[in-house]
Amino acid sequence: AGPARRPTRRLCAWIPFLRLSCPVQVPAQHRRGCTMAIRGSRSAVAAAAATVLLLLVSPTLAATLPGCTADSACVVSADVTLAGGTTYTHTAPVTITEGATVACTVAFCEVRLEVADLTVQGTLRSAIVTVDASGEVFVDGGLISARGLGRAAQTGPGKGFSAVNSPGGGGGFGGAGVDACFGDNPGGGAVYGAAGTLELFMGSGGGHALSVSGQQLRTGGAGGGVIDVTADKLRITRGGTLDARGADGDSIQWDTLGSGAGSGGTIAVVANTFKYELGGGTLDARGGHATPDNSQEGSKAGSGGGGRIYVIAQTAVPANVDMNVDGGFGACAQGGHGSVLMQIGHKVCTRETLGAFTCNCEPGFVGDDCDTCTGSVWGPDCTFACPDCGAHGSCSQRTSGSGCTCDAGWAGDRCDTCAEGYYGASCARCVWCGEHGRCNSGIDGDGACLCVDGWVTAPTCNACADGRYGADCADACDAACDAHGTCVDGVSGTGECICDEGWDGDDCTACAAGYFDAACSQSCGDCGPNAFCDDGLAGVGCTCSAGWVVPDGGSTCTECEAGKWGGDCTQDCPACVNGACDGGVAGTGLCVCDADFVGVLCDAACPACDHGSCDDGRDGSGLCECDAGWDGALCDACDEDGGYYGPACADACGDCGPHAVCEPGLAGAGCVCDEGWRVPAGGSTCVECAALRFG
């Protein structure tokens, strides 16, 4: 009927009436194997001892989870049944996956897990669940449950009562159970234990509903069990829950004789760090409901009182982790609310009702967070004498740090060095070096701004170094740009390379259009209509287009090159064998033959004309054209048709008259008179001879 004993591996904490003490050399947040010392008046001790009605024996059997080995990471992905009174030990991480249930079904079963790390995505269920993790407990959307697994109906120090022909009263624990409000109005259970006792009680059961004859009609709801988690770090996310609620009473609509609900149980969390996670979750030790929908019709049984929650940590409970110790709902009244105790460091806060927390410091500690010692001491337990803090500090009297509080600008365990941002023998304040620099601080520092890579002092490391650009000066300009261009650097720079005159390209390593030679220093300018600029590092400047040339004495490409003709100098001349093409802009593209050659290609030679000349040229006949008086294919005979005669064919017969004939040819004599006719002296025509005269 009493509390389950807290495991011996626990964090020592001061609580009213009880003192858990450890050797002082053990850090407070990791003390194990503590001994319990009772302090206070005799009556106070008696009052505290009265709450300890029965201690359950901690598990003594040792085992590993089914399917797992002690020293290897274990993943439980299927339902597993655990044995009561057993410690499951794993030196490696254990994960209970979503959909898997690890449970002990024995009444009042106590199961203990000693693990390196535990992740709960599924369900871990037992009347008493003890988790002792050297590392982390991560309730990742899962459930650790002792709901309705505490004291059975109508048992426990805060049990609900029953009466003939009456509904049952609600169970009590951290809050009082509610009396039934029908029949003989059997009472609800009383509060037992206290928020400051740090004893892990189960919740008590609600009373039965009895008939007129005293027969049990409905069984009261059981109290909530105990969930005890000790870890270096606890995380709860995705609605993960530690559930020690009391069971609801048994009721039927329109039937007033329902059974009483059980009270909430106990949740105890001892962690060095209670870490905030998105989603959060719940520590739930509410009392059970007499009527789950809070209906005024039906069961008049009593609802259960809330349980108790204990949190001992070095960090505060995250705001998105709800701690609920409300009493259950019912038609008669809501059950009494339970209590919450939080000890954050040396600050102990309790809440007995729905009111605000009442917080006190442990003896020897003061301050809003109970982190300052009283007297000339310091340290986690305020047991160390104040050190010599030199000329630049004083004793801190704090539970953390080195024992010294340094003057402004000074730091170190004994305040003998400069704080960050201070420099020199007097630890003077550094100038602000901006977001991208730091002060050369320290006793030996000179206070100069030391900029991170890419930044320069201007004056507070707010400008990019030469050749760096971008909002964080992380990008470097192309080094090739330096030779013939300027990089657009700086915080607002783009890294673009702006080239010098005559240069172009992403990194200014090529000549710009219209510039040529190895230094890109010469410009083509206007090359005219029949030329182009041969630019680039190997370029030569203005160059005539194909087919064009610069005439002698000229400066632009106005003539066709040899072998080309036409207005655009693109037509090819034929191969003139013995002549030349009539080329050029105004040319015909025809062959002009040399003397004594004919034909389209001037490929035919004229004959040797003795006394004349050949009709040569592209369109010539190739025949001899004879001089006057000459005739024949080669002009080597007299023109007899013309009457020419003599060795030189120079004389012509002319009109020889009626009595003469012309005798032409090289051997011809010219006009020869007919027989009997003669040319008289001084005459030109033949006359007849006198009678008997001849010759």
UniProtKB/TrEMBL annotation:
Segments forming domain EGF-like: 474-509, 598-636
Residue pairs linked by disulfide bridges in the UniProt entry: 477-487, 499-508, 626-635
- GO MF annotations in UniProt: scavenger receptor activity
PROSITE patterns with a match to the protein in the record? EGF_1, EGF_3, EGF_LAM_1
Key words of the record: Disulfide bond, EGF-like domain
Q: Which InterPro entries match?
A: EGF, LE_dom, MEGF10/SREC1/2-like
Q: Where is this region: Disordered?
A: 285-304
The record's listing under PANTHER family reads:
EGF-LIKE DOMAIN-CONTAINING PROTEIN, SCAVENGER RECEPTOR CLASS F
> What is this protein identified as?
EGF-like domain-containing protein
Q: Which organism is it from?
A: Bicosoecida sp. CB-2014
